[in-house]
């Protein structure tokens, strides 16, 4: 179960919170940034922090930059701060996440295909083996409802085989002016 609340201003500034239940507790993400457009190119620059209620030592923060042109989107994020439990471990500062997406019309649906790759800076330094992984997905949106099919490509180093199963994710979104 997950949910979020976002605020945005006409200047391009935004902030939000997302929280979800995980196998080992609750994750709460807090983020803020600035988004806009320069001609036909959209941009989004921000910071997001991932907070884990039961294990605060593994909290971490990323800075990100996103760009879009027509129906194509690209993004890059880097870990800029890591909790004490991540210091000098595989999930310390310097991790990099890159992603791309392409949106299109599929009949009555707005559709998107997307993928990303997480590259851990320190994974091999501490005997963890290669922990980098990729994920792929496709989503279909009609009105306020989105259905997505997603799949990870995680090596078996410390991973649960279920992490690679295809997932179906259903999302309902509602917007209103305040």
Structure at a glance:
The protein is mainly β.
Written overview of the protein:
The chain has 178 residues and is mostly beta strands. The chain contains no helices and eleven strands. It has an eleven-stranded antiparallel beta sheet with strand order 1-2-3-4-5-6-7-8-9-10-11, with no helix packed on it.
Low-confidence stretches: none
Strand share of the residues?
over 45%
Cross-sheet strand order for the largest sheet = 1-2-3-4-5-6-7-8-9-10-11
Number of strands: 11
Cα Rg: 17 Å
The oligomeric state is: single chain
**Number of contiguous helices:** 0
Largest sheet: 11 strands, antiparallel
The portion of residues assigned to helices is under 10%
Gap from first CA to last CA = 26 Å
SSE order, as H and E? EEEEEEEEEEE
Structural classification: mainly beta
Q: What's the overall geometry?
A: globular
Mean pLDDT: 86
């Amino acid at each position: 179960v997950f949910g979020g609340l976002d605020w945005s201003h006409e200047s391009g500034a935004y902030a939000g919170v997302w929280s979800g239940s995980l196998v080992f507790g609750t994750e709460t993400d807090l983020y803020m940034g600035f988004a806009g457009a320069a001609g036909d190119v959209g941009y989004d620059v921000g910071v997001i922090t991932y907070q884990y209620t039961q294990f605060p030592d593994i909290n971490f923060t990323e800075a990100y930059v996103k760009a879009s042109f027509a129906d194509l989107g690209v993004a890059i994020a880097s870990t800029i701060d890591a909790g004490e439990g991540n210091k000098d471990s595989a999930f310390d500062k310097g991790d990099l996440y890159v992603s791309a997406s392409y949106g299109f019309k599929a009949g009555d649906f707005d559709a998107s295909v997307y993928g990303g790759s997480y590259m851990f800076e320190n994974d091999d330094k501490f005997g963890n083996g290669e922990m980098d992984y990729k994920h792929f997905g496709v989503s279909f949106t009609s009105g306020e409802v989105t259905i997505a099919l997603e799949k990870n490509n995680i090596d078996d180093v410390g991973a649960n085989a279920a992490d690679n199963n295809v997932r179906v994710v259903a999302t309902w979104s509602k917007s209103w002016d305040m």
